[in-house]
Structure formats: C-alpha cells, structure tokens
Amino acid sequence: MSTDYQQAREALGARLRDLRFSCPGGRLTGQQLAQRLGWPGSKVSKLELGKQTATPEDLRAWADATDQPDLYAELAARLAGFESHIRSWRRALANGFAPLHEGLTQELERTSELWMWEESVVAGLLQTPEYARHVLRRYADLMGSASDIEDGVRSRVQRQEWVYRPGRKLHVLMWEAALRSLICPPSVLAAQLDRLAGVIGMDTVELGIIPFTASVKIVPANGFWVLDDRLVVAEDWHAELWLDDVDNVTLYKKVWRTLRQSAVYGSDAHNVIGAARRALNPL
C-alpha cells in the first residue's frame, strides 16, 4: 500500500478520534462508542489507527454516534480525497463492472488526447466484445465478485465511441505479449488481431507494437493511461491508481516516451500482428 494512501488513512483515523474526544455529551471511550454503534471494539480501534478503511456508511454512523452529524460531509470529503487515488478492485467490483467503468468514462469524455501502454493484454479501447468478455471474466474469477460481465462488456464497447470522434487522438503502445497471450480461445484472439490490424492507418489512432526482438530501455510492465497530461490511471493486481499530481504525470509520460523508442509502426506493426495471427493457425 502506498505511503501517501496510508498517511491519508491515518489522518482520517486521527480525525475520527478527535470526534470521539469532542463528543458534546462528553468524551467517549472506544468501547462506549462501539456499544453505541453496535460494532466490535476492534473496529473502532482499527479505524482510528488507520488499519482499516472506513466506508461512507461508517463515517455517517460515527458522526451521528458522536452527536456531530454536521461533520459527516467533512469526513466524506476526506475519504473521497484519498480513495479517488487508489481504488481497490475487490471493493469496486463488489458493485459490478458497469459502475467501475463509469468514472473512467466520465474522465475520458473530457479528454482530447490519450496515451496508453499495455504489456500483456490488448488495450481496452481497441478490444472486440468477445475478447473483452473473456478479460472481464478472468478478473471476476480472480476477485470472486462481479456478476454483471455483460453490462461491463457493453460499457467497454460504448466507451470505444471516443476513438471515432473528430478532434480525439489515441496513442497506443503494446508489447508483443499482448498479441499472443491466450486469455481467450484462439479464435477469439484471431478476431481481435484482425481488429488491431484494421485500426492501423486511422487518423485518430496511432498504434505502436514493441516486438519481442526489440531492444528495450525500460522493463515493459504495468499498464497505464495518461489523459491530457492531467491524469494517470495505472493498474496493479490489487487496485487501480489515479494520479493527478504533476510529478507522477510527468514520470508516466517519460516512461511512455521511453517505451515508444522500441516500438514499430505502420507496415512494421502490421507485420508483427500478422505473425501473431499466423501463429494461431500453423500449417
């Protein structure tokens, strides 16, 4: 867990402890507050020490139980402030794929230029519905949640309309591994590769492929998006990170440009895609 995230969680815990101490009816012990809330005493302790992330419902209950309901808005703002930067996959997928996609779609709507890097999966904005279905199903199986896979597929496909709008530009880099990973049946991957070959030459898409044989200047890892030089969305196994500070946006753009030095475009990219396509149907 990142230091920034943990510090923010501890700061929220300290504020919760302040509310317990400043209860208008008199300072409450942790056990007294737990009894009011109907919680185990360990939950109060974990929240105050920053060892557990509060939910909006926890914060409202805390504000009410300490007779300070007007402070709920402040607590909720604190939570939104740091949770907007690290979004746990497990917690997010508890509400399904569609809501998970909505936040990113809203950000994309106000974006005119997008830089993407994927090391082992085809970029979401270029996925076929069937390929997307298999990718989402794999994540759902891993996390043991999210039953609305079809809603997620529809959301992902609808988001792709962005690519076809005038004034938009998508810069995509993918490692050759993304063309060959059998996250889906070979027939589905074949159709996906045909789709990729078809976007080469579009005026709104710049597609670069880093071949396995290319000399790379940085480890090809960790997929991410950079939206208009204002926001980075990076993925890890446990969470999706949203980074909007200048230093991190600058760093990720530098990573993207460094990766680009190893990429091929145009007919050369088409040849790499074609080789991966032929490998699915060897003579």
Features:
283 residues, alpha/beta, 434 Repressor (Amino-terminal Domain), Endonuclease, Chain A, 2 domains, 52% helix, 13% strand
Provide a descriptive summary of the structure in words.
This protein is an alpha/beta fold and 283 residues long. The chain has two domains: 3-83, Orthogonal Bundle (434 Repressor (Amino-terminal Domain)), CATH 1.10.260; 87-279, Endonuclease, Chain A. It has helices at residues 3-21, 30-37, 41-48, 56-65, 72-83, 89-93, 97-109, 129-143, 149-159, 177-180, 186-199, 246-260, 266-279; strands spanning 86-88, 113-118, 169-175, 205-210, 224-227, 231-235, 239-243. Strand 5 and strand 6 (231-235) form a beta hairpin. The longest helix has 19 residues, at 3-21.
State the helical fraction: 40-55%
How many structural domains does the protein architecture include?
2
Strand order of the largest sheet: 1-7-6-5-2-3-4
Instruction: State the end-to-end distance.
Output: 48 Å
Give the second-level CATH assignment, the architecture of the largest domain.
2-Layer Sandwich
Determine and state the CATH class of the largest domain: Alpha Beta
CATH superfamily of the largest domain: Endonuclease Chain A
Q: What name is given to the CATH topology of the largest domain?
A: Endonuclease, Chain A
- Encode the helix/strand succession as letters: HHHHHEHHEHHEHHEEEEHH
Largest sheet: 7 strands, mixed
Mean pLDDT: 91
Shape designation: elongated
State the low-pLDDT regions, or none: none
Strand content: 5-15%
